[in-house]
Amino acid sequence: WYFTSFNQSISEMGLKPKSHILGLGINRGDEWKLLERILGRGHFSSLYLTGIDWDAGAISDLKKSFENHPNLQPNQHDLNQISKMELEQQDALISIDTLQSSSINGKELLVYLRKNVLRPHAPILLGFPNCRYLDGEIQFGARMKNYSEPELSLLVKDLFFYRRYLQQQGYKVVI
Does the pTM of the predicted model rise above 0.90? Predict the structure, then answer.
């Protein structure tokens, strides 16, 4: 299912050869592996990939996974300090399971990127986990204190913020 949804989303993004793609919280680059399967090796190899993750081990794994990619720019960096990076203008953004991280203000980050890093109306693909951090522990199903069952209102609240914000900026939003 994940691959099908990702495949459909990538198709709708209309990525052209030589596009500059920004990956947030890129880790080992699993989404880029899927991107390569969807677009094909030739098209994928033409892309300029900028990946940012705070974990040095993840960036090391990313470099190994894509060592033959001619246009890879991996960055170990704190996303809270992204304004200190000198990023080129990007043609698209892919961020899977990053904007809801407990140490990041995802809303401020997306607003900053849209205004300062992304080209006007650059396609944005956001993935949100069905989980939250509660007292430093990941809780799947978005469980909250004093609730015995999963409670998804925080996830829904975030989705509606991103949807409303992007629609106000002229984006077509699909959830």
Answer: no
